[in-house]
Amino acid sequence: MSTNIKVLVVDDSSLFRQMIMDHLSAQPGIEVVGYAINAYDAKRKIPLLKPDVLTLDVEMPGLNGIEFLKQLLPTNPIPVILVSSLNLSVFDALSAGAIDFVRKPDMTASNSKTVFFASLVPKVRAASIAKVRPARQSAFVPAANNQTRIQPQNQGVAKPMPFPPLSRTVLDSTIIGIGASTGGTEATLAVLQKLPANIPGIVITQHMPEGFTAMYAQRLNRICSMEVREAKNGDIIHPGLALIAPGGKQMEVIRSGRNYIVQCHSGAKVSGHCPSVDVLFSSIAKNVAINKVGIIMTGMGRDGADGLLKMRQSGAFTIGQDKESCVVYGMPMVAFNIGAVCTQASCDNIPSVLLNHLKK
Description:
The chain is an alpha/beta fold. It is 34% helix and 21% strand. The chain contains 13 helices and 14 strands. The protein has helices at residues 14-25, 39-49, 65-72, 89-95, 112-127, 152-155, 168-172, 184-192, 212-223, 277-287, 305-313, 331-337, 350-359, and strands spanning 5-10, 30-36, 53-57, 80-84, 100-103, 174-180, 201-206, 227-230, 241-244, 250-256, 259-265, 291-296, 317-321, 343-345. Strands 8-9-7-6-12-13-14 form a seven-stranded parallel sheet, sandwiched between helices. A five-stranded parallel sheet has the order 2-1-3-4-5, sandwiched between helices. It has a two-stranded antiparallel ribbon with strand order 10-11. Strand 4, helix 4 (89-95) and strand 5 form a beta-alpha-beta unit. Helix 3 (65-72) runs parallel beside helix 4 (89-95), helix 10 (277-287) runs parallel beside helix 11 and helix 11 (305-313) crosses helix 12 (331-337). It is elongated, with a radius of gyration of 20 Å. The chain starts with a strand and ends with a helix.
């Protein structure tokens, strides 16, 4: 009996479709069982071909990828990897239940295809063992062109947890680090949108390509109570602000006079990633003398585990997302197994665990 990962490629472009099929077919342990030229074609073929993973173009004529996912996943919970151009709609598709995404290659750039496939293949492998979550309606916020904040109570999204305001001392003397990968865009959102605006400064590394991190930050900024933005080199970490590491750059926390700031710089991949959670967490462990909290969330591999251990050894309170709520219980599992995690909690419970710790 074959143990290959069976993949169905869904794309209306014959060029991209064939390119993806040819490359995946050449990978050990992966079998391309077919292709679909649009969502309607995919709906017909899925019951026949029974794929383990779908690669899905987001922008297709007729039924687009987002609507397709909303129809497919409630009855056919198949892991889906999005193949997308630089477009806000990818986040709507992730909210609809897709596992992860890869940026479509620029066919005019010399190494673009190489980068594309170097990202796609491991994501397909990760998706094959991922848990498919139903659409989180609470997070479904249509892409908007303006930056008007969407108030949670008016949009049906999760309200910040009712909690007594934290003291100024706690707000000013704590830094929170969050790291996530596969499934992390929605998991991080689920945590942040339950936190109040009066929260200590937060720094986040989410594995994501260049260009998408700015759009992701804008999306979270419209939904969450605190300010969220893509980090720039030299940004000061302060209460009520969450900074997301820019795609393609490493982000570290350093001391600068009376403040803590982020350094965002080009650099080699660490633990297989740029940005790397290990880089962020290790810098917090080394450079932050005030109270610190580390949170490691869903993701394939072990990025962040060693950095979180350093944080715990330097006195930080550390939280690992539990197996049941992870899309992929990889990074948090390794962190737990090496002793880096003080406590495990579900995605829904991480905000209360964090706030109760800060209250103490």
